[in-house]
Design brief:
Layout: H1 9-29, H2 37-57, H3 60-77, H4 85-107, H5 113-127, H6 137-144, H7 148-151, E1 154-160, H8 174-183, E2 185-192, H9 200-203, E3 208-216, H10 220-226, E4 236-241, E5 251-253, H11 305-329, H12 338-362, E6 363-365, H13 367-370, H14 373-384, E7 388-393, E8 398-400, H15 401-422, H16 426-431, E9 438-447, E10 450-457, H17 464-473, H18 484-488, H19 511-521, E11 525-531, E12 535-543, E13 548-556, E14 559-564, E15 568-572, E16 579-582, E17 585-590, E18 593-599, H20 600-604, E19 617-623, E20 626-632, E21 634-642, H21 646-649, E22 656-661, E23 667-671, H22 673-681, H23 694-700
Helix pairs in contact: 1-2, 1-4, 2-3, 3-4, 3-5, 4-5, 11-12, 14-15, 15-19
């Protein structure tokens, strides 16, 4: 049966991308003057793994470039060549070219072959001619500073016993044999197991193992590196032979020749047992030190994002169904239907546990985005002639994968702006009494139910005079009396830029506009603070997830709203003496602090909502570090709610973060506390009766309920 090898391409593409990311991260942090040996070995292993996979899956163009890269890395890690800054830059360029080739095979994008060939030539030129072997191992070791085992040819016996599913993984041995033959003189012998009888199970097993003899000036670790991509350490045994122990194999494989992979045309029937100890009907025991496939540390699975999204959607439907059943069960007497109520409690607990487990699958560390910025800062700083250090804080903070994918562009624009507009040149920084190296900090942290990402720099800060002048030039409403926080918001306007000339980095006035639009589309907010000469700070606040949250349902008039549970500090019913009125506004005194009261009914224009705090319930909530009091008629119940997008199904409703479906099938808006506070402060309140009741909404939809 012929297996389509292309089904394994996505796995190779993903693993190669991970290897390239690891290479880039190490190269950006390595010190060329005193490189760490383990870091050099890690870069070499990454390049070697990509080369092995490219050869196995039939991508010879990638194998050629990675082979040239691997050859130079091999000389560097063995101290034949000294690592230098230009060499590190060349390694980074080679990584970019391999990434381009990878995209060409994966996405069908165009590959610049001239650039690839030029890189291969530059890598080969740096490798130079191989140093000749000395007349004796001792003298070679003394000249090169290496041990005799590294420089003198040695003979090794290599035994490779692959796992049963070896060929089912579409692994080919020819590239392995070719690479070993390039090292020296290779003798190859294939041992084929011949059981007494064959069954279907035997055809699905690998019945061949190899005994090789290699004579080459290499170390056992270098031989083991050749098998790195196709075998575990316990599947390859390497024994150093004495001169008298060197055996003979059928035919040597010389450098440049192709080694044959010996397999039987048909499984022999009735043949005697082969040299392998295990029988096909009695699988061999797991060797000592080898991890079983079901070991917790070795088990992992790659799942497409579409399957994860489908699982999240089904989990949301289950949460809604559980809420409907719980509301129905409340109609039955708990004394007469104890089993029913007990079962509903168990269902609620199991649903919550399942929801937390499913949501954890969707959460990813924000390092998935942060790790791309060291290279961006490195290249952009070199282009601008600036010295910049990037600091990453809170990389392990987890965020919904759907948000992570949409967050890359806004953060890229913010970091580029910090380098181009914020950080000064080394000469300017020294003149201002600053160190020549500027600092850009990327920080992520979880605050309540939101993720706050900070992009800060210690540069010149925002230029208030330049922003006012640009606003006047564009005819925007701006004046000297505007507060800094209000003035800084002008830079998010489309086409707004204070750059004197347009470059490939900035000047078109689209970057900050993209930041604002993308962040708002994710239900987030952007705020800026700046101090002249000390730098600026941009805060991006996002919801932790876009799927399910814990909320408290409240009644305001005839409407039901959901307040995110992580925003609630406490709830109370104030006494008349704790209420203070200042004009049209009221405050409530809570433990010596006077908090402004924000009536939800007035914000949304709900007729029939309670207006007197003494008669209603005051809910203290946290709005990005500031506490305010929401005025609601009644607290209903706490439950999990599934977030549904209003923009896709209805329209944008200010002050809300979406909607959800209640247990009775009705719709409830999910409040955005920070947005509510901004609406209230701006005096943007709706007239009474502005929010449609559920009956009115159903009538407007032709008698059909809202479909969120």
């Amino acid at each position: 049966m012929e297996i389509d090898i292309s089904q394994f391409f996505p796995l190779f593409f993903e693993e190669s991308a991970e290897h390239l990311a690891d290479m880039e991260s190490i190269l950006l942090s390595i010190d060329p003057s005193s490189p760490d040996e383990e870091e050099l070995n890690a870069v070499f292993r990454a390049a070697h793994s990509i080369k092995g996979g490219a050869g196995t899956f039939g991508f010879p163009d990638m194998a050629v470039l990675t082979h040239a890269l691997e050859s130079l890395l091999d000389r560097v890690r063995h101290r034949d060549l000294a690592l230098s800054a230009p060499m590190v830059e060349l390694f980074l360029e080679a990584g970019d070219a391999i990434r381009m080739q990878l995209a060409g095979h994966r996405d069908g994008t165009e590959v610049d072959q001239a650039k690839v060939e030029a890189l291969c030539q530059r890598l080969q030129a740096m490798v130079g001619p191989a140093a000749p072997l000395a007349s004796s191992p001792a003298s070679a070791a003394a000249e090169e500073g290496a041990s005799p085992e590294q420089s003198a040819p040695r003979s090794y016996r290599i035994e490779f016993v692959p796992p049963d599913n070896f060929f089912n993984r579409m692994v080919r041995m020819e590239p392995i044999f070719d690479e070993l033959a390039d090292m020296g003189e290779l003798l190859n012998h294939a041992r084929i197991e011949a059981p007494d009888s064959f069954e279907q199970y035997d055809y699905e097993r690998c019945l061949v193992s190899w005994e090789l003899q290699l004579t080459a000036p290499v170390t056992p670790d270098e031989i083991r590196d050749v098998f790195m991509f196709v075998a575990d350490d316990d599947e390859v045994s390497i024994e150093t032979l004495n001169a008298d122990d060197a055996g003979n194999a059928p035919e040597p494989v010389k450098p440049g020749e192709k080694a044959a992979c010996l397999l039987p045309a048909e499984p022999p029937i009735g043949a005697g047992g082969g040299p392998r100890a295990s029988s096909p009907r009695e699988p061999a025991a797991t060797p000592p030190g080898r991890k079983c496939q079901d070991h917790p540390e070795a088990s992992s699975i790659r799942v497409g994002t579409s399957k994860v999204d489908q699982l999240i959607n089904q989990m949301g439907e289950l949460v809604i169904l559980q809420a409907m059943l719980a509301q129905t069960a409340q109609q039955f007497d708990p004394l007469l239907h104890q089993d029913l109520h007990h079962g509903m409690q168990l269902l609620q607990r199991s649903t919550r546990d399942l929801q937390e487990s499913v949501m954890s699958i969707r959460m990813m560390p924000i390092s998935f985005i942060f790790n791309r910025f060291p290279r961006l800062v490195h290249d952009l700083a070199a282009k601008l002639g600036k010295q910049v250090e990037l600091k990453l804080v809170g990389e392990q903070t987890e965020l919904d994968k759907g948000l992570i994918e949409k967050l890359a562009d806004p953060l890229t624009h913010l970091v580029r702006n910090s380098l181009d507009h914020g950080i000064e040149s080394p000469q300017q920084r020294v003149a201002f009494g600053k160190p020549p190296v500027g600092t850009v900090t990327l920080c992520a942290a979880q605050t309540g139910g939101r993720i706050v990402i900070e992009v800060a720099d210690d540069g010149a800060g925002l230029n208030r005079a330049a922003i006012l002048a640009k606003a006047a030039e564009k005819g925007m409403a701006a004046s000297e009396e505007m507060a800094d926080e209000e003035l800084w918001q002008l830079i998010f306007a489309p086409g707004f830029s204070t750059a004197h000339q347009v470059t490939d980095v900035s000047g078109r006035g689209v970057g900050m506009d993209v930041v604002m639009r993308n962040v708002q589309a994710m239900g987030g907010r952007v705020s800026i603070s700046s101090q002249a000469g000390a730098g600026s700070r941009v805060l991006v606040s996002l919801p932790l997830t876009l799927a399910i949250l814990d909320g408290l349902s409240v009644r305001v008039g005839g409407e039901t709203f959901i307040v995110p549970l992580n925003s609630i500090v406490e709830s109370l019913q104030p006494k008349p003496g704790e209420i203070n009125r200042v004009g049209d506004h009221s405050t409530v005194q809570v433990r010596g602090a006077y908090l402004p009261i924000l009536p939800i009914g007035a914000v949304f224009g709900i007729a029939g909502a309670l207006q007197r705090p003494e008669e209603a319930v005051v809910m203290i909530v946290d709005a990005d570090g500031e506490q305010v009091a929401l005025l609601v008629d009644e607290l209903l119940t706490q439950h999990q709610v599934v977030i549904k997008s209003l923009e896709k199904n209805y329209r944008k409703v200010e002050g809300t973060a979406g909607a959800t479906i209640l247990g009775d099938g009705g719709i409830a808006l999910i409040l955005d506390v920070v947005d509510l506070v901004q609406l209230w402060r701006q005096g943007r309140v709706a007239p009474p009766g502005a929010v449609e009741t559920r009956t009115q909404a159903d009538a407007a939809n032709g008698g059909e309920p809202w479909k969120i």
